[in-house]
Specification:
2 copies of one chain form a homodimer. Chain A is mainly β and 128 residues long. The first copy, chain A, has no helices and 12 strands.
Chain lengths: 128, 128
């Protein structure tokens, strides 16, 4: 068993094309022996966003604090604490902080994601 | 994409031997098309607890609010908001609310859990 606190896990910049103002903490993952999926926590600074991209694996997301939007293609859904988002494989998506405080959310992914390079949405200038 | 709020998802009693004062919401699961794992939210009432049991699949847990303990066998770890718990396959575990407000946590499980019956810890009177 591993028991820790989010704030005790190292936060690192999200080093992906199209990401701005994003940090990630890997809360549970393969180094812990987790067999199939990982739990990460993202912090998106005011004005920041995750890449607008797609990939052949899913996300299961829970918003912890802050306000923002999730883009489903070009459709915006407002986000606040307690919101639940399921991003199906191959859906174009992006998380944006539209507030004045950090937007923090959990994002779970299957380990199969580690071997797959996401495809940027065309408007980002980097096509699949 | 599915976007909803925790409070909009139906809460149902946890109908498992050894559970007291527990409700669950299935936030994301197989009915949503999720390919490999599910996100549930549990509410444990003051004085309540989940079964003390074990099973051959993992849990990835994030505490949203309230106070309590997670038992790793007979060892207690205190819990509060922001705590992260990884329960490895086959570890005996139990979540207990030791506070005066509801203990709410997310608990992610692989879909393979659906076909496996957990084994109660011997002290519950129901052995594997």
């Amino acid at each position: 068993m591993k028991v820790t606190h989010l704030t005790k896990v190292a936060s690192q910049p999200v080093d992906m094309p199209g990401a701005t103002g994003c940090q990630v903490r890997w809360l549970v993952g393969q180094p812990d022996g987790a067999p199939s999926f990982a739990m990460r926590a993202f912090d998106v600074a005011p004005g920041g966003y995750t890449p607008k991209h797609q990939h052949p694996y899913e996300h299961e997301v829970y918003v912890l604090e802050g306000t923002g939007v999730v883009l489903e293609g070009d459709v915006e859904h407002p986000l606040s604490a307690g919101q639940v988002i399921y991003v199906a494989p191959d859906e174009v998506h992006q998380f944006r902080n539209t507030g004045t405080a950090p937007l923090r959310f959990l994002c779970m992914v299957p380990h199969t994601s580690a071997s797959v390079l996401p495809a940027q949405a065309p408007e980002c200038g980097i096509e699949r």
